[in-house]
Design a protein that fits this description.
Pfam families: bHLH_ILI (PF23174). 72% of the residues lie in helices and 0% in strands. By secondary structure, the chain is mostly helical.
Length: 88
């Protein structure tokens, strides 16, 4: 396989490897493995799993914030601080 693909817009194997390495460095479990290279398939599966867990965490935090806001006096200083944070 050549290091450069002939079709327009394709990237080189070197660029793919660099991107995969960057992706691996963003995953918490991959960082602990150090510099060992994971297979592309395994790395992409880990990435999907990590993104799903982030979505679950966002949903959970959103639910907790909604619960907190529903029990809070909407004119309080704390409520105004939270609204200010959410606007930014």
């Amino acid at each position: 396989m050549s290091s450069r693909r002939s079709s327009r817009g394709a990237i080189s194997d070197e660029e793919v490897n660099e991107l995969m390495s960057k992706l691996q460095s963003l995953l918490p479990n991959s960082r602990r493995r150090g510099s060992s290279q994971a297979s592309t398939t395994k790395l992409l599966k880990e990435t999907c799993s990590y993104i799903k867990s982030l979505h679950r965490e966002v949903d959970d935090l959103s639910d907790r914030l909604s619960d907190l806001m529903s029990t809070m006096d909407h004119n309080s200083a704390e409520a105004e601080i939270i609204r200010g944070i959410l606007r930014s």
